[in-house]
């Protein structure tokens, strides 16, 4: 898969890390996090920190389960707020889990939110009702979310028989092919930038969509992909925070001052690109370190892929939020993460 001269995420991360001026990957931090992850592998599986959110995940028994996952990941971006008082909360859940809770509630109430015939024409009032929170705070980037739903719904109807199942079938059990189908056909998933004269990519939402399908269906049925290990981590604003917390990455004084002062980083700025790109490369290096450690100690366990490592770190931040919050996370407005 390649879009013209755009580097794929793994190569983009390596390229960005090589030229980064504001972000550094540290060997010692990688060793520390490697030990943490190895200690969490039980019964040949990486055990995820419990986040208490099982009740709001999409249901495999739903007749449009595949489209439920698709809609969720299409809207999976930008949940941060300037302060906790203005945080969007649904049934006590915040961030991405608030989105899951809102969609789960809508489906239980009979709203046809998994059907592109409905959401391709969804009105402002309808989406406001679906995303209604526990307070008066509205979900961030509300207008952009309407546009995303209109875009993906229209494209599904026009090109894919009104269901994301068609995309999965066309991918023929290839995660990379499905990634390509999503990025080529749905512009809102086209997470790319220019850095140091080179077109680079992150594809956070597109990759997490494929990984969610794999994880949700336990690697079978609609989630059976023979090349799932070729995905990278999903470069957002929370996982880099955990990487800095463990010392895997560090920021320049200038960048850290900006984050401590709660300054917005412009989407596509060098600093924002370096945080995301170095996060991708850091997890690739971490995966290799884990693999080497497993081989050296002859451990009878499988090497977790990058998507599992990403989810572990994301859940770790959720479970240990108070400690991890000592590290500021970068804030960028946009639909890519």
From TrEMBL:
It is an enzyme of class 3 (hydrolase). InterPro entries: Q_salvage. Its EC number is 3.2.2.-. It catalyses: queuosine 5'-phosphate + H2O = queuine + D-ribose 5-phosphate. GO terms for biological process: tRNA modification. Pfam families: Q_salvage (PF10343). Keywords: Hydrolase. One of its GO terms (molecular function) is hydrolase activity. Belongs to the QNG1 protein family. Catalyzes the hydrolysis of queuosine 5'-phosphate, releasing the nucleobase queuine (q). Is required for salvage of queuine from exogenous queuosine (Q) that is imported and then converted to queuosine 5'-phosphate intracellularly. This is Queuosine 5'-phosphate N-glycosylase/hydrolase. It comes from Papilio xuthus (Asian swallowtail butterfly).
